[in-house]
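Supplementary Note 3. Input sequence used for the single-chain structure prediction.
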Amino acid sequence: MSDINPHAEQHSALRRPVRELCRQFDSHYWQQVEEQRTYPEAFVRALTEAGWLAALIPEEYGGAGLSVTEASVILEEINRSGANSGACHAQMYIMGALLRHGSPEQKQTYLPRIASGELRLQSFAVTEPSTGTDTTKTKTFARRKGDCYVVHGQKVFISRVQHSDLMLLLARTTPLAEVRKKTEGLSIFLVELQQAIGRWLTVRPIRNMVNQETNELFFDNLEIPFENLIGAEGQGFRYILDGMNAERILIAAECIGDGYWFIDKARAYANERVVFDRPIGQNQGIQFPIARAYANVRAADLMRYAAAQLFDAGQPCGAEANMAKLLAADASWEAANVCLQTHGGFGFAAEYDVERKFRETRLYQVAPISTNLILAFLSEHVLGLPRSY
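The predicted structure, written as discrete structure tokens, is reproduced below.
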């Protein structure tokens, strides 16, 4: 069969070695990880040792110094292989805050060790139980006390805490009632997890639909050294927004990888499965949904590249990044449904991997930002409609 991804030969110097690495972690590996509900430690370690998770770290700090376009290709290929980059993708898009707003001392202290794999930066604590996506209402508070900040509060749906050495934390440093604009008075900190967990930080795992270790966090008198404040105090919300376009583009690429995986899987099964003495792929009722899903993945793929090229050129790309994530998440979810339907009952059997990938790609309708919030953004900021919230 020919490759259904028209960009398969673009960035081949990236695609081929990523694909070869992922082949070492086959269906059996991922089924074992899923069955035992464990973290794919060997897979993440292999990606780290190969340098792929340091893609966006500048060469001067031991990274590859690649563009967001190139980083998106890496994540696409991981998901295209049948693996789940959700186990480690945060290191890609969390990195932006430290890269763009960290002090020279912070960069020199942490970036080389993250690039080498000595340290992992895989967790980002923003969401809270009572605020959800209304980030400016964050209640977790960091009070300055001498040469440190003392943190009290709670976060929820925070992933990979057990497998990360460092975590970025968003907290209020000025009460909401005392700021001119609600987006002010929020700060971000680098938390060294191994020192905090079990003492001033309680971690409570949340079992969820996807095998992605997710937790609720409770901070009680957690002391963070002043030098672990990233950027200027009170400007954390702006720093987060600064990295969201890259995050949208990279997640879109993962969805594109999922979409191509589902279509590959569906077309292979449709050609091989014989019912009533003919392959089921001969029936238009099977053909047309697969073809439509393919067309939509291709369209979303183009928007991913358009957004990434704007980002790498330093051009405004908020609308394009959000549309890339929206279209890619929708396309991968459509492809997932088509693939499951094509397989019939076998689609529900774990050995085919369809049901695992089906659950994984469903997440991106909700995270890291829901499709509804993207539509609200486009409505207000692109189409000029009244603000809805």
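Strands lie at 121-125, 141-145, 148-159, 166-172, 186-192, 201-206, 214-225, 229-230, 274-275, 278-279. The mean pLDDT is 95.
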